[in-house]
Amino acid sequence: RPFLSGPKQGELRCFKDTMYHKEKSIQIKNSASALYNNLSVLRIAPRRLTYFTVVHANVVNTVSASWDGLNYSHRQLQSKEPNVATSTSLIMQAAFCVLPSRDLLVVSSQKGIQMYESDGSIMVYWHALDTPEAPTAQAVFARGISAVSDNYICVGVSSGAVLVFDIPSKGSNITLSEVLEEHKEAITDIASECSGSQECLANLVTADDGGNMCVWKSGEEFQLLNKIPGLDITCSSVKLWKGTVLAGYGTGQIRLYEAVTGILHAEVNAHARWIYSLDIAPFSGLLLSAAEDSFVRVWHVSMTPETNSVEIAHLHNECVTDTQICGAKFCDGDGYAFAVTGYDLSEIIRYIQS
Amino acid sequence: MSLRTLPLVFINLGGEMLYILDQRLRAHNTSEDKSEKGVWSESDRRRVLNDIVGTMFSKSFMDELLKPQQLYSHRTMKTVLTRLAHTSIMRLNPASMDRLYELMIMAFKYQVFLCPRPKDLLLISYNHIDTIREFVRDTPVVMNQVDETHRNIIEVYSSLSEGQFQLLRQTLLIFFQDMHIRVSLFLKNQIQNPSGRFVLTTSGPVPYGADVPGLIRTFDLRGREVNRSEFPPGGTYSGLVREGSFDLNGDRVLRLGRNLYRVEHPEETQTSRTHSVQPDSAPNPLAKEELNQLARLMGSMKAENVPKGEPQFRINLFTTDQEEEAASGGEQEAMFQVINIQAVQDEQAASELARIAGQFTDEEEKLENPSSNKGDDLLAMMDDL
């Protein structure tokens, strides 16, 4: 099945143009909005199902797709404030959070944060954002969602704060455990270490509108390990894999940093427009990048521990004609398949290795 | 989302409206004699533009827009733009306004969609302001208002970060979402597909400050470059774009937002519907907050007294709709709609509108019709304006 296994560069075979081919798209009820990281995927192997979630304005579209391609089940969730016709309840992001004992669907909006069971059936928690007494010019919203370690979910806020929620193994007794206040600009994305390795010192990275990143170690009190300064260029999407931060920027660049030291390993002039989504397949080291320039690109990231070097090689391009892409995610840990959403598109486009 | 969209929305949508009106009024300028029925003279054209620009760029109106607030719905936006258009001697019937609004929206959507960097939204706005300034060049009072507004805009928006501009742009893209109305000028210039979607080219210059894609660089622990390789980006991009001027005057470099209608082709303002979503005009029962916003905004517009006995003028935007249909044969549902700007006898003087606007919240209490929704009636009344 997956012919790319292990990170050693020698085993890599570059198929370039024919590496992936397009599969049948999944139709969704609304078109995707132009928001960073606007696609989340949850693979449920025991039930042979994959969940997808895409945000449209004040609605979250979820689709459950059976692996045999025969069954599709749709559900729509709205931001908590009902019956508001004006645009006060816009959703910034919806993302699946995988914890050892449970999976949750987290929705962050202008009003606050909602957490649902992963199929969207029941809301288990609601946290309202503090709204300022007098209207200010600064927009208020929550954006940036990630599970971290065994029992935390972190969500970013427009003020730069990162809310840390303590999640019990079941039930709705979710509590706000800590508020991390290092960032001065709106949070854009949050990611946790996804290689499965217990050796990594850092297991969380948070990024903001100015491209600044903070690297953390989770715990009862989260510990700030490092700050990687930005260059006033928004980091819109970030991943953390084997101690390496992979960041996508508004200038179309991808940069790879060593998380705890901030050393720059590699810099790629990857896209001609703003990057909206990065994803990594943790078992194979495949990296997916997607941008407003209508391109999705697949890369391979490899590490040589002896020399502490990190390399990145380009493998494949897909162009989604006339579309500004807003979400792209691998559908499995090897990167065998990936899915893409675009602004104004009412479908989830899928690609699979040839 | 962004609380800073309204000033830019009005400058750009209003600007597009002025471009179209200017072009149509020029096209019908066949006589200087104002008394000839059905003809718009040069002085009429200038007067219409001056009246609209004068209201749009008035201090009270702009101050209201500059307050941090959420973006309006399409219904409210259309109502305010209609009111703006009616501060002149020209009148638009609802059907005409609908079509005109679609045209304005699609033009602005195109500009926002193609905007190279989020900050370039300002350059697009300044392109509109530059042309508006030319329209009112012979009326110093109005031109000064334009300059003053321009200075305010520069001051307010110069402190926004690129990330905040992108949030603003994302808010606008939600506003335009699912609108794919075809515009014949865009189809002709091949910036829009027959499906109604805009063309996104994979060639051309990258935005100012960005790098041409195709390069991978790796570094050692001390930050020295140790390797450099290239990859095929799949498109043909170039670098070296000058940055446009963000000052009161200057070369904006960016072409988006310039006047595309400066050619004498009447069919270029035609639109046609596909299955796309129309701007939502359904009555909105819980839009009280929006009605309040609207009332404040309308109240802030100068109330012009239109003297009775003004001659009425009718303009047809299109003369070739039959030819258009014949030519398009074979295309599914080529329902090209004619935008007719017709002068309609307006019973209410313009000052009435401001009075009514002030009464919105009172009226809501007094309405007693049990079978219809209070909000429906109010909004229906706005449609009659």
UniProtKB/TrEMBL annotation, chain A:
Looking at the Swiss-Prot or TrEMBL record, what is one Pfam family this protein matches? WDR54
Protein source organism: Ataeniobius toweri
PANTHER family, A to Z: POC1 CENTRIOLAR PROTEIN HOMOLOG, WD REPEAT-CONTAINING PROTEIN 55
InterPro entries to which the protein is assigned, alphabetical: WD40/YVTN_repeat-like_dom_sf, WD40_repeat_dom_sf, WD40_rpt, WDR54_beta_prop, WDR55/POC1
What name does the UniProt record give this protein? WD repeat-containing protein 54 beta-propeller domain-containing protein
Does Repeat show up as a keyword for this record? yes
WD repeat-containing protein 54 beta-propeller domain: from which residue to which, for each copy?
Answer: 19-351
Entry keyword set: Repeat, WD repeat
UniProtKB/TrEMBL annotation, chain B:
Region Disordered, annotated ranges? 265-285, 361-385
What Pfam families does its record include?
A: Oscp1 (PF10188)
Q: Where is the composition biased (Polar residues)?
A: 271-281
The name this protein goes by in its record: Protein oscp1
Q: Which organism is it from?
A: Ataeniobius toweri
